[in-house]
């Protein structure tokens, strides 16, 4: 390379050879995760286009998550569990949970109550503590099953509930913490939520995310890892180019 030669020393060369495959593998792993998410979304979208089935039938499936169900029973009146600080389209609001008593017989091993996400309501002003919640008077319940993807330990350990008339308010979302609160009140629930189906006549917004992290997010992470690998290669080359010393005796 002109008056320079590429002469890496041993320790930087070993570090480079160890770090480069790690960065490349992380990038490839994120690409694999993106493909997994694409397949998962395709499967969940296919489920969402299928007709509703009875809850008991859905729970017999190998993968009941996101299955459309219909549940016989009745709403528990005058009780809501409200999660604050939920954003949608850049606007703050609340996710509102209610309880539904199923018609399952007393000999059933399934809990008699299930959590229902009625949807999202916008915050009306800065001073609003809880939203104005329409009564839960639905005569039937239809929606999609949603199983917890794991508890949020930060929320679970720092959960602070506030009571406002017929609503309990918490500042952050954690499904297991909400279910635990329902149990404290006296309603021991099944290990899932029914997210109510969209209704154009309802004040609730019911646009559920199929996955928490879309494929595009994993693609962005992959680009970052590959970018770091490229920077590492460039730095390794540049920092190990040594200027060649001219032989003074030859010049003399």
UniProtKB/TrEMBL annotation:
- To which species is this protein native? Kangiella profundi
* Protein's recorded name: SURF1-like protein
UniProt subcellular location:
Cell membrane; Membrane
Family from the record: Belongs to the SURF1 family.
Q: Provide one Gene Ontology cellular component.
A: plasma membrane
- UniProt membrane topology term: Multi-pass membrane protein
Query: According to its UniProt record, what is one Pfam family this protein matches?
Result: SURF1
Coarse class of the primary localization is membrane
Which UniProt key words apply to this protein?
A: Cell membrane, Membrane, Transmembrane, Transmembrane helix
PROSITE patterns per the UniProt record, alphabetical: SURF1 (PS50895)
């Amino acid at each position: 390379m002109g008056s320079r030669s590429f002469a890496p020393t041993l320790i930087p060369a070993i570090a480079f050879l160890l770090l480069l495959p790690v960065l490349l593998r992380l990038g490839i792993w994120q690409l694999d995760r993106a493909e997994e998410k694409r397949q998962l979304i395709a499967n969940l979208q296919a489920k969402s286009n299928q007709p509703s089935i009875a809850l008991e039938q859905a729970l017999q499936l190998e993968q009941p998550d996101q299955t459309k169900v219909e549940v016989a029973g009745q709403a528990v009146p005058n009780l809501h569990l409200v999660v604050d600080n939920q954003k949608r389209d850049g606007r703050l609001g609340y996710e509102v949970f209610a309880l539904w008593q199923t018609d399952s017989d007393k000999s059933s091993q399934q809990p008699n109550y299930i959590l229902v996400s009625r949807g999202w309501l916008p915050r009306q002003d800065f001073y609003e503590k809880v939203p104005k919640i329409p009564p839960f008077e639905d005569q039937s319940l239809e929606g999609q099953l949603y199983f917890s993807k794991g508890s949020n330990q930060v929320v679970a350990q720092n959960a602070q509930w506030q009571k406002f008339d017929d609503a309990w308010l918490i500042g952050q979302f954690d499904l297991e913490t909400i279910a635990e609160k329902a149990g404290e009140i006296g309603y021991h629930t099944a290990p899932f939520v029914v997210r109510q189906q969209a209704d154009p006549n309802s004040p609730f917004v019911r646009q559920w995310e199929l996955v928490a992290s879309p494929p595009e997010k994993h693609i962005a992470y992959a680009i970052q890892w590959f970018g770091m690998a490229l920077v590492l290669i460039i730095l390794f080359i540049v920092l190990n180019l040594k200027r060649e010393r001219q032989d003074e005796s030859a010049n003399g």
